[in-house]
Design brief:
With about 300 residues, this protein is of the alpha/beta class. The chain is about 40% helix and about 15% strand. The protein has a single domain, classed as NADP-dependent oxidoreductase domain (TIM Barrel, Alpha-Beta Barrel). Helix 2 (about 55-65) crosses helix 3 (about 95-110) and helix 5 (about 155-165) packs parallel to helix 6 (about 190-195).
Length: about 300
């Protein structure tokens, strides 16, 4: 395994992280714990979740899995989404952030969170209030670092300016939707992260399974997959896209790799990317994802990929 610093902070993470959004929902508890333990055994130390994933069950499962192994992992979790019907059960107000953090700590069975992230922008809460609440949690030792997720470039920049002006702990990371087929972050967000030393933590690196090679043109969608039975997702399985995946698969196979590993290696070749959050429902998937580690794509291969997906 390889490890990188998150932006210009001192926090180090494994270049391949484990996404826990399926734990407690699509993936039952015993299997989820098995996946987490396999990830730790392979050197994957970064586990990313959110309080809203399976309404807290994901965090609870991670807490159980890390009993006796807490020091081996960096726990990344998030706050913002609705956790109830009350007016203070969502958002980035001081009240919700502090209460949500305490609840996450209980579910995770830990006394600190390595990276606490604002899950998305909250236009109803003053950014000064949000950042002061995060800063208080850092000063109290309940949170080590803070970050954002799904922020635009201007939202991230405003947040960093506010923290700098007021002496608050700054966001050290941004977690955007970013992969070979979703490149909108490259226009403004990634340049902002590079300019301010913010680490980039892509989610959905395999485009929800599209970049695994399991979907092929002219073949039925496999049962049990994310795209099966979901008309909105199936609309994305165009002949053009599947053709691109097939060409990417050829590049990967020529190097004894999989298209999934190529997708992860491509992200790791992008400036500011510190870890790639890849979900897994089976230990074998973690093993496959880790197979991308150490594959440094050369300029010729990167150009080849760009010609296909541009």
């Amino acid at each position: 395994m390889q490890y990188r610093s998150v932006g210009k902070s001192g926090l180090k993470v494994s270049v391949v992280g484990l996404g826990a959004n399926n734990f407690g929902g699509r993936t039952e508890e015993a299997r989820s714990i098995e996946v987490i333990h396999r990830a730790l055994d392979l050197g994957v130390t970064t586990v990313d979740t959110a309080d809203v994933y399976s309404r807290g069950r994901s965090e609870e499962i991670i807490g159980k899995a890390l009993k006796g192994r807490r020091e081996q992992a960096e726990i990344l979790t998030k706050v913002r989404a609705s956790m109830g019907d009350g007016p203070h059960d969502k958002g980035l107000s001081r009240k919700h952030i502090v209460e949500a953090c305490e609840a996450s700590l209980r579910r995770l069975q830990t006394d600190y969170i390595d990276l606490y992230q604002a899950h998305s922008w909250d236009a109803e809460a003053p950014i000064e209030e949000t950042l002061r609440a995060f800063d208080d949690l850092v000063r109290a030792g309940k949170v080590r670092y803070i970050g954002s997720s799904n922020f635009s470039a201007w939202q991230l920049t405003w947040s960093l300016w506010t923290s700098d002006r007021r002496g608050y702990a700054p966001f050290v990371s941004e977690q955007p939707h970013y992969n070979l087929f979703e490149r909108s972050a490259e226009a403004e967000l990634l340049p902002a992260c590079a300019a301010f030393g913010v680490g980039v933590i892509p989610y959905l690196p395999l485009a929800g399974g599209l970049l695994t090679g399991k979907y092929r043109a002219g073949e039925p969608v496999p049962e049990g997959t994310r795209y099966h039975g979901n008309e909105r997702l199936r609309a994305q399985l165009t002949e053009e896209r599947l053709g691109k995946v097939a060409k990417l698969d050829e590049i990967a196979k020529a190097r004894d790799k999989t298209v999934s590993q190529l997708a992860i290696a491509w992200l790791l070749a992008q400036p500011q990317v510190c870890t790639v959050i890849a979900g897994a429902t089976r230990p074998e998937q973690v093993e496959g994802n880790v197979g991308a580690v150490g594959w440094d794509l050369d300029a010729a291969t990167l150009n080849q990929i760009e010609e296909i997906v541009a």
